[in-house]
Write the structure tokens for this entry.
Amino acid sequence: MDYASQLIEKFNRKTARVAVLGMGYVGLPFATVFANAGFNVTGIDPVTEKMDMVNRGESYILDVPTAVVKGLVDAGRLRGTSDYSVLKDIDAVAICVPTPLRHTGDPDLSFIISAAEGIAPYVHAGMVVVLESSTYPGTTRELVLPTLTEKSGLKVGEELFLAFSPERVDPGREDWTTKNTPKVIGGMTEKCTEVSAAWYSQALDTVVPVSSTEVAEMAKLLENTFRMINIGFVNELTLICDRLGIDVWEVIDAAATKPFGFMRFNPGPGLGGHCIPIDPMYLSWKMRSLNYTTRFIELASEINTSMPRFVVGKVQDALNDHEKAIKGSKVLVLGAAYKPDIDDLRESPAIDVIRLLQQKGAKVSYHDPYIPHIRDEDWEIDSVTDLIPAVKDADCVVIVTNHKVYDYQAIHEHAQLIVDTRNALGKLGRTSARVVRL
């Protein structure tokens, strides 16, 4: 039986039944895009509260409006469940689970392994599975493939089709979304790539086939390692300019006027998010197993992870210049999300800044309009409710995340002292004696 042709025909007619395993920042947007394209989509997630919200037509992610989820649920094209047994009737599965680092800095592949093990009892001939989770080259072939085929005995490329397609979600963006961001995809065989591309091309604007799962896996690591290393470089430039007494932001503005041979990267209090701080370390870990040291990655990581401590040092020095000790001073951190205008706290440097300030004896509070609470293992803190009174009361305000909703003119007007890690105050910050910038 020609299962590949059957699947491609189902995709072309949009009669294929689609499942998305892992309904977080990647999975929910992915599910809604394919449901909007006309497919019947089932979201699968072990967190039953999330699936209950989906079935009520509610969104829990800022990038996906509740109205979109409700419309798709009401139309019968989207539903959520925590029951893996629905996979027995599914034609196409996208795995969109997290791939964090362990406390030791090693990759935590437990979510991928669990997802593959969850699919395995229900895998069947005429199914395509695509792994979206960022990981090191070889994961699809070494972990997912044997899990799906060991007991089923299905032949990959003939009965079962397996591929890797790195997610490229950038939370908070409206110009580049799941639908219009070009999608790289590489299969275990040519036929796997063909089937997977036929599926994705029904809902995504541009599909970019590559020769193997390893190429697709490595492409994602290249994208994020490129950014991580360049951010590490510009953060080191910040440390250099600080010692030379030069305004790093003016230097970057000047360099950015060159129309060729320069790409702008901005410094900050550290790296955050689901990709840039994590993905390069997957590559570094993989290469250590092959007795190779990824020196650029290790150095950039060292610089980036040192930035929260550098920020706290700037706060301490600024308070000292105003004849105040950091111990006992009231410090207000503005912004907890890892980037502006989102509610994503993953790997946010704000957590490190807050905890380091507390270790120095500062009385720390924070404000973030998108994140009302921070829970981190045995430690927690709540956002202040009234911003301007908190600004007035603070001995120092530290801008960690430059949300657009903030009225920086008013914050500057009422603050006694500001440490601006994002150049959020712009020209105002350059001329004010009450503002210290990185």
About this structure: The chain has 15 helices and 15 strands.
